[in-house]
Design a protein that fits this description.
Rossmann fold, 2 domains, single chain, 297 residues, six-stranded mixed sheet, four-stranded parallel sheet, 12 helices, globular
Length: 297
Amino acid sequence: MNLNLPSKITKISSNFLHQKQVDIFIKRDDVIHPIISGNKWRKLKYNFQAASDEGCDKILSFGGVFSNHLHALSYACNYFGFGSIGVVRDTHAKKETPTLSFCKKNKMKLYYLDRNQYRQKKSIQTINLLRKKFGKFYLIPEGGNNLLGIKGCQEIFDEIDIDYDYLCSPVGTGCTAAGLIKGMKNNKKFIGFAPFTKTIEQSENIKNFCDFQLYNNWELISDIHFGGFGKIDSNLIKFVRRFKSDFNMELDLIYTGKLFYSLFNMIKNDAFDKRTKILVIHTGGLQGLNGFNFSYS
C-alpha cells in the first residue's frame, strides 16, 4: 500500500491571519492515502499487526451509517486480506448510505443494532452475542479507540519538525486526542474541538488514557456542534467553501470544518496572543461529504 508518509505540513496565509499576527500550520494527514486518510491509518496500523499476531482472520468494529472509521476499515481489511464485520448503529433509514455501500463493496459484513442495543456495545453480553454469531474475531473499538490506536497517533510527533505553541485536532472518540496529549511536550497546549452537545464521554476517554496529574495541558472546545452532532447550517457551508477557495484545501462538515470555523472565530476574538503558532492536524474524513450530499439530496 502506497502511503504518503510523513504527511506534509502546510502554512496557510491570509490578510486576516496577517493582521492578527497568528500563524497556522496544517499537518496534512488527509493526503496520507485516498481512502485510509487522516488519523485512520495511524489508529489501524498496530491493531492490524495485533490481529495478525493473534491469528485472527476477521476484524470487527462499530460505527454509524456515515462512519469514517468503518469506511477506512473495510478498505484496509479487504486490501490486507482480513474479513471485516461492521456493527452499525441502525437509524432505520430507508436508503443505504454511500458509506455503507462502500463497506459492502469491500466485503464487509454489516450487522445492525438499534440505538438502545448500540449503547451496550461494550458489554460482555453484546460481545458474546457477536462472537456466537461471527466466531473468532479481533475487536477494534469504535473509532479505533484503544491503546494501539493511541500508540499509532503518538507517532505523528516523529514527523513534526516545526515549533508551535498550540496543537489542535478534532475530537471524535478521544483516541487521537489522547495520543497527541501523551506525545506532546509539556510546554505545549492541546485544544480539542469536539462537535457534540455533550463531551463527557470524550473527556472520560482521554482521562482514562492520560493520567490527568501528568497531562493537564489540554482542553476541549465543545460549543461548535451547530445544534448537535452532524448538524450544519449555511454559515458553516459557506465557510468550508471559502476555505477551499482561499487555501485549496477541502474540509468535511462534521469535524475539520467545525474546527476551523471555531478556530478562526477564536482568532477573530483575540483568544491567542500575537505571534502565536498553531499546528492543526487535518484528520481527513472527507468521505463524509458524500454523506452530506446523500442526506441533503
